[in-house]
Amino acid sequence: MKLERVLIVGGGIAGLAMAGGLTRAGVDCVVVEKAESWRPVGAGIVLNVNAMAALRMLGVAEAVEGRGFRLSGGIIADQSGRNLARSDFGALEAEFGPTIALHRAELHATLLEGASEAEINLGMSVERMVQHPDGVDATLTDGRKDHFDLVVGADGIHSRLRELTFGHVPTEYSGYTCWRFVAHARLRQSTMCEMWGRGKRLGIVPIGEDTFYVFAVANAPIGTRDNEPDRIRRFRARFSDFGGPAPILLDTLEDPESLIHTDLSAVPLGNWFE
Asked: What is the per-residue pLDDT across 65-83, written as a single tens digit (0 to 9) for each?
C-alpha cells in the first residue's frame, strides 16, 4: 500500500523527525500533540554518529551541529574521577561524522523547523481508532474525524495510542531513579563522562560554551518522592562523594524546579504494531 496520508500522535523528537522525513518523501502528514504550547522540556541529549546519520537523511544535521557541541570523546570513570575507559569520537569523524550534544529544546526546535510542511495541531490527541484493510479511521479529541493510511504512536511512555491499540500495558520499573539538570560553569571539557559509584552514577556532558548537561541515577524503590523543600540539599548530599568536576557542577544548583526528577521505566510489549 502506498502511503499518502499519515497521522502522527505526539510532537516530540520522534514524532517531528518522522513528520519531517515523510513530508520530504511527499507524504501528507498530520501531527497531533496534547501539549497546548511548545515549551522547553528536559535537559540534554547526545546524538551519536548513527543518530547524526539519520538527521542528515532528514536534512537537519547541519542545523543541529550549529546548535550543539561537538564531543571529542567519551570517558567512563570511577566515583573519584579516575578514568577507567575512553572512546575517541574524533577517530570516527572522517568516516561517520561528528557526535553532537545539545539541549533537548534545541533539537526539538530544529526538528520542528524540518517538519514545517506537516499539519501540526497543539492541544489535541486521538480519541478513537477503527482499523480497516485500507487504513485507519481516527477520531481526534476535538471531534474531527479523518481517514489515514497509517497512524503512528510517538506519544511517549504513557501513550494514548498504545492504550487504544493494545489496552492497558503496565510499565516495568528499571530499579533506579534519575535526576537531570543544566549547569553553567567555566570548565574546559570536550568529552562526555559517566562516573560510576556504588548503586549510583553521575554523567557530565558539555552541550555548549560553559554549559553542561548533568544526569544522575541511583538505585531506589519505585515512587521515591523528591518533594521540592530541601530537594537540592538532599541531591547534593546523595552525590557528594563524586569527585572530578562533579562538586563544581552540583554547586551551581539553586532553583529546585530546575532539577528534573523521574523514575525510569520501560514498556514490556512484544508487538509494537497491529
From this structure: 999 999 999 999 999 999 9
Determine the Cα–Cα distance for residues 1 and 5; give it in Å rounded to an integer.
Answer: 11
Output the DSSP codes for 175-231: EEEEEEEEEE------EEEEEE-SSEEEEEEEEETTEEEEEEEEE--TT----STTH
CB 180 within 8 A of CB 203: no
Residue 203, amino acid? G
CB neighbour class for 26 (10 Å; exposed up to 12, middle 13-18, buried from 19): exposed
Sign of the dihedral through C-alpha 39, 36, 254, 241: negative
What is the rounded distance in angstroms from the CA atom of residue 174 to the CA atom of residue 86? 26
pLDDT digit string, tens, across residues 114-123: 999 999 999 9
pLDDT tier for residue 84 given thresholds of 50, 70 and 90: very high
Report DSSP state, residue 167: -
Cell digits of residue 264: 525510569
Residue 95: DSSP 8-state: H
Amino acid residing at 73: G
Q: How confident is the model at residue 260 (pLDDT cuts 50, 70, 90)?
A: very high
Task: Give me the phi and psi of 255, to 5 degrees please.
Answer: -95, 120
Residue 228 has pLDDT above 90, yes or no: no
